[in-house]
Amino acid sequence: MRKNRLLLIALALIVLAIGAVVLAPFAISNGLHLWLRWQAHHQQLKIDHGKISAPFLRPIAIDHLHITNESGSATQIDIHTEQIILHPRLVSILTGRADGIRAMSIKAARAEIRRDFSGTARSNAFDWRALQKLLPANFDVSHLDLRVENGPTVVLLLNASVSASQIESGRFTAGEFTIVSPLIRQKFSQLRGATKWRDNRLTIGGLNLAGGLDLQSLTIDLSHLDAERADLQFDLDVFGGKIRGSISNEWSGKRSAWNLAGSANDISLTRTSEALGFTDQLGGSLRACNFTFRGDPRDPMSGTASVWTELNGLSWRNRAADVIMLGAVFYNRQIQLQQLYIKQRQNELTMSGEGAIPSKSADWLNPDFRGQILGKINDLGQFAELFGAAPKTFAGTIAIEGTLNAGQRKLGGFLTASGTSLSLFKRQIDKFNAKINLKTDALELEQFEVVRKKDFLRAQGKIDIAHANDYVGTIEAKVADAAEYFPLERAGAKAAIPAQLNAQIASSAWDAHSVFTLAGSALGNGNSIPGRRSRKRAPVFPSRDFQRGNFERDAVCHAKFAASEHQRRTPVAQRRSPKCAARSEPRQRPNHVQWRARRA
Questions:
Q1: pLDDT tens digits along 90-113
Q2: Considering Cα of 38, then 41, then 42, then 48, what sign does the dihedral take?
Q3: Which of the four pLDDT bands, split at 50, 70 and 90, describes residue 559?
Q4: What's the confidence (pLDDT) of residue 172?
């Protein structure tokens, strides 16, 4: 009896074994087919596959597999593979463990990924946990073509092959790797490197991209796909220096958070410009640079960022600087300029400050800013060339110091500048001094003085910024020859035209007294000091609102200019003999002007 029972059990096991051998291929192939259809519906994908072969205790073979998503999605994918061989772990698959595939090989694969930034594109949910469970322990792709489009940036990987294993080193080859973006366009050919795949992290190293450009390591971390996160780290040797960086992206929910951090040191700008194909060669070196960013690139104003960089011996075209240092931080729509330092031989300029970027257009009229500037420029021409000025347009020595505080509709601070032996736009100036004070309700010009030889121009004034058209000031000027500054006709080839000006300014009323000497002429005989009707509201600018006259013989001009908001009916012009005063006033205009001239 007991022997019969054992015999029946043995026969049952044999029948089950035979059934498993016979039915397993059919069950596995149809089960995989149903699973692909369910995933396509669940992930909102379109999956088309070829014949599935699943011999008992042998790898699963899929003739071809084509995966696309629905049109109108924010991320468009098109993946086509041929001759896929899978080595599954049935125990891991049945228990739901992550290492369900022991090995995977693909003869050929082509993938295209496009990001759609239009407002009509929709983002679809994707089960990244299921994808992570399908990551194999070992893989081999014999031929790979990849194209990624992210707005204006395009990345191409052509004629590549990659294999990786957790036990031994794999290989990576690529016939062409191209990056095209608004900032850079570069192509690398015939790449060779080694790979390592462990704990869902792929490391590629030992890639020689170009002469002086070596990729020591590139690590792609896919171990957190179930948490909707991916990381990338790289270590790059660049023309005698190093660049290290890390990029992390978390896309849970509707927002995407990026974490970027990078550092660089001792990079030759000359070799870099040659390698990148710049038309204008750069000189110098990047001594140090650190950069961080956290936020969504589509909404940079809500992110945080910081940068610190130091350039040594920078040269570009005819521009050169010994040292340029920049440190800045951005957070919560606030920009903090920690330092901008420029040193060029004996020239030095330092700036720092902080301010807020307004969130509304109306807030631009009420800025929030604080800043300081300090500079000692011993060669203004050389320093101006750094910012694109033509040679010999500027020259001399100048010192600048100032502070500015603006916020809550209040201003404060000062700015002082002084210079000697200056040349501004090829005009020689022996001495220059200026001081401006910024107050809550006024802009005060405490001192303004320009001296050239024995000529000078001095001015003082105050503008009430709380009220419109409310200002006072004085102007004093004296020149030995006005023809050196203005397009005046001389009586002789060497005849000078001395001039002197004194003006008192009070809001819309100007009281000016001018003395000038014109050799060899007489006031009269059809010559006058013509005026023109002023159509401007206060203030009036005499140099723009009056035509130039032909003055003859030595003369003294005393002029009063007045502008008001009221209409007046006055004569158009009254003209008398050269010894008499002349007066011109506009009629039926919001502003009125009067002036007198008398012969000396």
A1: 666 656 566 778 899 999 999 998
A2: positive
A3: low
A4: 94
pTM score, whole prediction: 0.69
Average pLDDT of the segment spanning 140-155:
90
Q: Which residue has the tokens 């003209």?
A: 575
237's tokens: 């040797």
Q: Report residue 8: phi and psi, to 5°.
A: -65, -40
CB 380 within 8 A of CB 407: no
| CA atoms in the 13 A half-sphere facing the CB of 189 | 0
pLDDT at 292: 95
- DSSP letter for 362, please: G
510 in Cβ contact with 475 (< 8 Å): no
* Nearest-5° Cα angle at 485, 480 to 488: 90
SS3 of 269, please?
Answer: helix
- Confidence class for position 327, pLDDT limits 50, 70, 90: very high
Q: pLDDT, tens digit, for every residue of 516-534?
A: 776 655 443 333 333 333 3
Q: Is residue 344 within 8 Å of 382, Cβ to Cβ?
A: yes
Backbone angles phi, psi at 256, to 5 degrees: -120, 125
Cβ–Cβ < 8 Å for 50, 33: no
Give the torsion through C-alpha atoms of 290, 295, 301, 307, to 10 deg.
0
Which long-range contacts does 265-268 make (Cβ < 8 Å, 24+ apart)? 265/241, 265/289, 266/240, 266/241, 266/242, 267/238, 267/239, 267/240, 267/241, 267/242, 267/243, 268/239, 268/240, 268/241
Question: Sign of torsion, CA 142 143 149 154?
Answer: positive
Residues in the chain, total: 600
169's tokens: 């080193």
Residue 284 exposed, middle or buried by CB count within 10 Å (0-12, 13-18, 19+): buried
Long-range contacts of 385-394 (CB under 8 A, 24+ apart): 385/318, 385/319, 386/319, 386/320, 386/321, 386/342, 386/344, 387/319, 388/319, 391/318, 392/423, 392/426, 393/423, 393/425, 393/426, 394/422, 394/423, 394/424, 394/425
CA atoms within 13 A on the CB side of 287: 12
- Whole-number Å distance between alpha carbons of 217 and 237: 10
Averaged pLDDT for residues 545-549: 42
Q: Indicate if the pLDDT at residue 384 is higher than 60.
A: yes
Residue of 2, 3, 60 lying closest to 28 (CA atoms): 60
The residues pairing with 447 across neighbouring beta strands, listed in sequence order, are 435
Domain spans in the chain, listed from the N-terminal domain onward: 471-600
Whether 292 and 260 have beta carbons less than 8 Å apart is answered as yes
CB 127 within 8 A of CB 42: yes
pLDDT tens digits for range 396-454: 899 999 998 877 667 788 889 998 888 876 778 889 999 999 887 788 899 999 998 88
Own/partner long-range contacts of 144-150 (Cβ < 8 Å, ≥24 apart): 144/108, 144/109, 144/110, 144/111, 145/109, 145/110, 145/111, 146/110, 146/111, 146/112, 147/111, 147/112, 147/113, 148/112, 148/113, 148/114, 149/112, 149/113, 149/114, 149/115, 150/115
Residue 138, SS3? coil
The shares of helix, strand and coil residues in the chain, as percent rounded to the nearest 5, are 15, 55, 30
DSSP state letters, 297-321: TTSGGGSEEEEEEEEEEEEETTEEE
Q: Which residues neighbour 67 within 8 Å (Cβ) at sequence distance 6 or greater?
A: 45, 46, 47, 77, 78, 79, 80
